[in-house]
Amino acid sequence: MTGAAVSAFLSDGRLHLQHGPIDLIIEAHGDAKDISIAYDAMAKRFETVLDELVLELTSLRREVSKADSAKSPIARRMIVATEKYNDEFVTPMAAVAGSVADEIVQIGWTSSSLKKLYVNNGGDIAFRVGSGEEVVVGLTKSVIDPTLIGRLHFSSKSNVCGVATSGFGGRSRTFGIADAVTVISSCAADADVAATLIANHVSLGSHPQVKVVAANLVDATSDLGDRLVTSSVGNLTKQEIETALDNGVEKARAMCTRGTIEGAFLALRGSVRSVGKFHCSYLVDGKVSW
Amino acid sequence: MPDHDLNVEEEQIDEGKVRCEACPIRCFIKPEQTGSCDRYGNVDGVLTRMDPVTVLHITNKRGGSVVPFALNAESWSGEASISPEVVIIGSGSGTTYPDYKPAPFIVSSLHDGVDTVTVVTEGIFSYCGVKVKIDTDRHIGDERSLVMHEGEPIGHVSTAEYGSQMLSLGGVHHLTGITKHSGLATMRALEELCEKRAVELQVEGGASLIIQAGTAPVINGVEEQLMRVGCGSASVGMFAGQWQDVVDEVVVVDEHITGVLTEHQAGAVLGMRPSGIKLRGRRSTPGRYFNVVEPGIGWGGTNISDPLEILQPFKPKLAWPGLRLLMVSTTGDAAEYFVLNDKLEPIRQPLPDDVIPTVEQIGFNCEPALTSIVFMAGAGGSLRAGTTNSPIRLTKSVRNAQTIVTCGGAPVYIWPGGGITFMVDVEKVPPGSFGHVPTPAIVAPIEFTVSRENFIALGGHEKSIRQMSDVLLAERVRHLEHKEFYTQ
């Protein structure tokens, strides 16, 4: 018998859903009764999320082109989000966090009448914004440093509902060295996989300052198998930082052109680049409306 | 479960993996790894909750509940002073323990004007560090010099103490305030040091160090042997009687107070004849000189390579040919013997057989040089909040010694003043007690031990009190099966 999903409120009133490795922080705005209905619906949906994923886990850990057709809606979201990138190595697991957030936010938003709602799954955020409202997402320059360097304001007119961040030092392994890549996209699953892939490309290739390790040595069940993931990053020259960012920017631009993402911020050692409709100069304590 | 998974199970168990049952993923965890949640790991083939007794960081006032495990049983239950009337509580025991534990890396905080933050870690702050005492008089760097690890600043050289150099490492600014990389380097160094593993440090403009709790420091590649027995003047006082008959003059060279035997009170009392020796530096009181040498990595931990550098010509009216001079460091590790020639110039000669024991006596009375590491951390409001309805009562109770604070079962010193800021000798804390979250922050155990009566008087959550036997059964059943110690 394994542990069940847990639903609890943080002391500030936000909802915390946790099961195994999944932690969701959820906040709804609206009438108390509507919030309560939405929280109940999301908690109820969450109860079976991990069990559903586990049933298909073996398939979801394979390269997306070799994954079985998915049964659960979350697994389907994962496959849909990742199969767009069949020209490089990616498994549906690259979109797992965003897909869970998308599923839960969808349940909450449709269960009652809310003004706004967000579901934050470890930095991968799905949200919905009602008319006249806005959701403000803080932007950081590193996945492990919560200092804000900017804010993204999303209104009901935004055609984006997902933001995700990936980088070296976070929970997931990366082939790259980005401190943080934040991607804005139409849903959290799309943002999640794009952030992962762009972060993989913020790279100097084989480099003496970048130590790597086989992914399955640090996590035996890693979907990345024996591929080499970054284990430490030493001192980099200004030029090396810019080169690595250039490589990521190129990847992000291609995604923007294809329309799979709306925009991205890439950060490495204090240098920040942006791709999309905004300028970097807006970043520092700036307001990027969307 | 499909059949093929069962086959996998047998194969994987063979490799020393354990299967976690904490959630439906049921990870197979290889030795020394954690499952996909990072909350459970395989420690020596035993499935182990990786959370220490509690999480020692400030989780901000909001959303800061953490639910620890009550007992790091395999490591220290034999040592802790637990009587049947005593409950051990971790912080946060009022929540739905033990099933519910927000992982430290998702504990969230609110930023003004921001709904949510797109970062793996939300608002974790760490208030902890280590104070390092390195038993050496060698110069490791100027006070206030930065101490670097992995090329990043993680602390500084603090004010020197008796026979030792002090480092102050970590602290909230180094963990969170400078750059991500310096925070990570700080976190790694702190964790390694607290876990009693060796860490390489570089003092800016100073020495390279390899330090490890409970072992001799390695300074610029040389392992330090002895802590000095006292300053130069004190050494003269201690050993004057033994020198009286075998030499005419002794200079105990010391960066702080260099001692000269015949001028010193000890020599005077013994009626020793003034030698006419003249030292550079500044005479403080008879036989006690300041500023003779600077700290360094040369002769006897000073900046000189030849002790004669500190001598000026002997006074011809007082000195005499054949005068026997011993110059020795405060640990006895450096010693030279001279005899004045007809021109009153000191001529280097081997240490005579009757002088050697007096030098050895200095070393014999020195203690071995060690590195000692004290972990210092503060238990803020959120840590206390889970324990009682009124956190301040817990603080007062600690002040009144009604509640005993321990760190992994080890005794702590509680700083006067606000909060519960404690210091603990890391060598007394069981191995594996310290960890980290990538925030970066250090995770360390802390226990509050209080009698049931006082616990309830504190406004403690009575319903949360559980019998020790229940806790052990519920949380450590696998340990109980594996560790024969507990079934005896």
Describe this structure in words.
The complex is a heterodimer of chains A (290) and B (488). Chain A contains eight helices and 14 strands. Chain A has 290 residues and is an alpha+beta fold. Chain A has one domain: Roll (T-fold), CATH 3.10.520.10. In chain A, strands 1-2-3-4-5-8-9-12-13 form a nine-stranded antiparallel sheet. A three-stranded mixed sheet of chain A has the order 6-7-14, with no helix packed on it. A two-stranded antiparallel ribbon of chain A has the order 10-11. In chain A, a hairpin with a 2-residue loop joins β2 (15-19) and β3. The model of chain A is unreliable at 279-286 (pLDDT under 50). The longest helix of chain B has 15 residues, at 180-194. Chain B contains 13 helices and 31 strands. In chain B, the strands form seven sheets. Chain B has an eleven-stranded antiparallel sheet with strand order 14-13-12-11-8-9-10-7-24-28-27. Chains A and B meet through β2, β3, α2, β4 and β6 of A and β2, β6 and α4 of B.
Structural class of chain A: alpha+beta
Q: What is the overall shape of chain B?
A: elongated
Give me the CATH architecture of chain A, please: Roll
Which strand order spans the largest sheet of chain B, edge to edge or round the barrel? 14-13-12-11-8-9-10-7-24-28-27
Number of domains of chain B: 4
Q: How helix-rich are the residues of chain A, as a percent range?
A: 25-40%
Fill in the CATH topology of chain A.
Answer: T-fold
CATH superfamily of chain A: ApbE-like domains
**Number of individual domains of chain A:** 1
Task: Count every helix of chain A, treating DSSP H or I runs of 4 or more residues as helices.
Answer: 8
The outline of chain A comes out as globular
- Portion of residues in beta strands of chain A equals 25-35%
Biggest sheet descriptor of chain B: 11 strands, antiparallel
Multimerization status: heterodimer
